[in-house]
């Protein structure tokens, strides 16, 4: 029980008054941003990315963890009350959650969502505590060939699963890889794609791209739609009962458990985060519901909300484990966290548990604390959060743009970066406008250098013999997984076409 | 109580629509047309002289059939009418079948109609 000992030490590190304050602040900010319509948890993390560099690493990551999970809670609050999920991972819980709110059961829906998210998060935090060190130990055997295969798996999986069109996913991925190659080549020292400009010498700053893609692009999109989309209608009519009855709790309990079970494994599969598992869990609950004597789906089924919520947070928590132990980001938000780690000169991966144990364990402990804090601030006050909608949108979005610009300027005080940021924002807007997913771009940019250097290291080590890539069992397993993902996608495309026979 | 018709742009679905109209008249119940592809195909509020209301799956839902069945629960459908196309057992095994999904999972009785089998 080494882990328990270490985790307790982590709690000792995380429970200092300052760190507690950061958790609380992170949870508040995350929930607030998640609640605002159109803004999701990944945007919250992106906004804070430049701001946290003033903090010491432990405080910064504790803050991030709070924001990350807080955003998820906020996303689903808005999905339930107003049918506007902040992020793709909250869509599946919106269907039945909003139906419940419409039926006058909004407090119950919010409670089921909050408890589900809490349970999913706790389960994943426990899983990470016990599995991540083992995963890291296993990954310590990874050489360049293995990392190359892992990066390829991530590229293939994320670009085929995230978008409905593989072409769009690959386009986004390639854009990310292109951005990653700009600058000085780390192995040969040659300049690449700098066009002779000294500003591009160091490459494109990941912070600029992340904030531009996730924050500015989103704001531009909201701004263009502000008078076109119908104003979301709030259904806050407080029901007669505030809390869950025992029967409702018992009804939702199996769905919470199933959701968490479905969500956990997706934390280590790079398919773009919690969207896939939440829909999977929703589908499972829906099918099970049809076999019951009194089917609820369509009228506001608590199970249809409980499952996806638990699944979403279980995936998110486990994704942090994968990030810490393997250095593998499975979603856009995890890519931002990876960027933050790099900014501090810390490389997440197998060695992290040895070299930065004083950072990792307080971070894991702060997951548990964040979950409890989030449950406390969301369970009784979820309706209050909806009051944030009273902020007039023009002020809100202008404020966000200023905040982004300030953050960028604070990390690198140069005009060039600000202009580049604006350009990335426009690109992000176009991508959103034409439904090109953003996650592959970020994953490509984060993992591109890893893929490139591992490939070249492997080839250097083998004197240019390409068979090194399929020499060990681990790369072969990873390539087989990649094939499975691609085959799955192909089947899905064929099925949606030929299934139509009604 | 309502009669709900799954609507697509196939000849089978046209036949299902006619059967649905006839059935709703016979039962004296409202007719709901569910546009499975998310596109409303009938411009008027009446189909073959009968008043109807329209439903579409939520565009964010990946499973329109599931959405159809949820709508049937919500509108308390007494009958679901679908068109049916002949397909090979292997095809259904490999690629699944929307019609089969409806038939197996619906809680209301399902009326399956083939193209050209319109009662004249």
TrEMBL record, chain A:
Keyword Membrane: yes
Organism of derivation: Prauserella alba
InterPro entries assigned: DUF112_TM
Domain (DUF112): residue spans on this chain: 20-442
Keywords annotated in UniProt: Membrane, Transmembrane, Transmembrane helix
Top-level taxon in the UniProt lineage: Bacteria
PANTHER family named in the record: TRICARBOXYLIC TRANSPORT PROTEIN
Signal peptide: none
Protein name according to UniProt: Tripartite tricarboxylate transporter permease TctA
Pfam (any one): TctA
TM segment ranges: 20-39, 46-69, 110-135, 147-163, 169-187, 199-220, 318-339, 359-382, 394-411, 418-446, 466-490
TrEMBL record, chain B:
Family matches, as InterPro entries: Universal_stress_UspA, UspA
Residues in UspA domain copies: 2-114
Database matches in CDD domains: USP-like
Span list, region Disordered: 44-67
Pfam families reported for this sequence: Usp (PF00582)
Domain of life (superkingdom): Bacteria
UniProt xrefs under Gene3D superfamilies: 3.40.50.12370
Family classification: Belongs to the universal stress protein A family.
Designated name of the protein: UspA domain-containing protein
Native species: Prauserella alba
Lineage: Bacteria, Bacillati, Actinomycetota, Actinomycetes, Pseudonocardiales
